[in-house]
Design brief:
It is built from 13 helices and 14 strands. The protein has 357 residues and is of the alpha/beta class.
């Protein structure tokens, strides 16, 4: 049985959440906190398996409560936001403090959006409740990745694209990777992050604060530039097209793959077809299997494939599925991925020029 502590200053919202959870045979609401201070105290007294956390509350807000719970009684926390536009940056600051996921708050039960939000909430609660200790990716100050660990075929390849896929736990890993990259990298980066509607813009703004790379939402048809991170927009597959010597982003309205649009597998398959061996595919923390089949296609096309290691993943689902398909070249922590990318993409343009002669 999953024991849940609900934290929200609205009794109406708390009642809706309680009804959602207690309709599931494996879930039990063990407490209701109307502010952050109560959540801190009740997390210690009730020892729930997981806490849902509102952001704006009296006495103590959700950000401070998350920080205190992580310091004193680490418990999986899912932030449930009611006002996407006003709370985006605070939600991602809660992830910095140790929250595992941010999702949109279900509202009135008679709205058309209620059932998809309910299903997303239930799925997230089940997955996050299995994370017994909140794993925050720690800086280790290990210095540059050791060059001798790199196979010569990866070191000598002229890479022209890095494609990354992630879901739950992805924002934390992306933050670690991009903040650890100390210099410009000479290839563009494309990212597909599964996230609730309305949150990608806030994720982009949050990541831009921690990196010297340019971070943005991709635009249909735009040329992809070095040292720039392009996020797939909501409800579009992010694909690639070559025009002369340049790569361009192309959007697709093709049906979802599995349940996802954007889909990591769609992006990886496009990278395999357009870039072949000159691409790098990376799968980070996430639920489910999106990206695994696409990563296998990339590896078959000669691309270099990397997954995040299990110990640093919030959820090892997507990387595990790629591993099961024998689609993986390397397994690394996020910080090592950053140093590794810096090492193997050095002098890319000179390597491309040599390869074209």
């Amino acid at each position: 049985m999953i024991k849940i502590l609900i934290t929200d200053d609205s009794m109406t919202v708390a009642t809706i959440l309680k009804a959602i959870f207690e309709n599931e045979p494996d879930m039990q609401v063990v407490g209701y906190a109307k502010d952050g201070r109560q959540a801190v105290d009740m997390s210690r007294e009730l020892k729930p398996d997981i806490i849902t956390m509102d952001i704006r509350m009296p006495v103590m807000d959700g950000l401070m409560a998350t920080r205190m719970i992580m310091e004193n009684n680490p418990t999986p926390i899912v932030v449930i936001s009611s006002d996407i536009n006003d709370e985006l940056q605070i939600c991602f600051r809660a992830i910095e403090e140790g929250a595992l996921a941010v999702i949109e708050k279900p509202h009135a039960m008679n709205t058309k959006d209620f059932d998809p939000l309910r299903r997303k909430l239930i799925q997230t609660i089940r997955a996050m409740s299995e994370v017994k200790m909140v794993r925050r990716i720690a800086r280790k100050n290990k210095g540059p990745f050791e060059i001798q660990k790199i196979h010569s075929k990866f070191q000598d390849t002229a890479y022209e694209l890095i494609a990354i896929g992630c879901s739950t736990g992805g924002p934390q890993a992306l933050n670690c990777i991009f903040s650890s990259i100390s210099a410009e990298i000479s290839v563009p980066v494309a990212v597909v992050q599964h996230m609730s509607q309305g949150f990608i813009k806030g994720l982009v703004e949050w990541l831009q604060r921690v990196t010297s790379l340019t971070v943005k939402i991709a635009e249909d048809g735009e040329m992809l530039l070095p040292s720039t991170v392009y996020f797939a927009p909501e409800d579009k597959h992010l694909l690639f097209q070559r025009k002369g010597n340049n790569l361009h982003a192309v959007f697709s309205d093709e049906p979802p793959i599995g349940q996802f649009r954007p889909s990591v597998t769609a992006t990886f398959r496009s990278a395999a077809g357009v870039c072949g061996k000159n691409a790098i595919g990376i799968l980070l923390s996430g639920m489910g299997n999106d990206g695994a089949a696409g990563m296998l296609d990339m590896r078959k096309a000669g691309a270099h494939t990397i997954i995040q290691d299990q110990n640093s993943c919030v959820v090892f689902g997507m990387p595990r599925e790629a591993l099961a398909l024998d689609a993986v070249d390397k397994i690394m922590e996020p910080e090592d991925i950053a140093f590794y990318l810096e090492s193997i993409t050095k002098n890319t343009w000179s390597k491309l020029n040599v390869a074209s002669k």
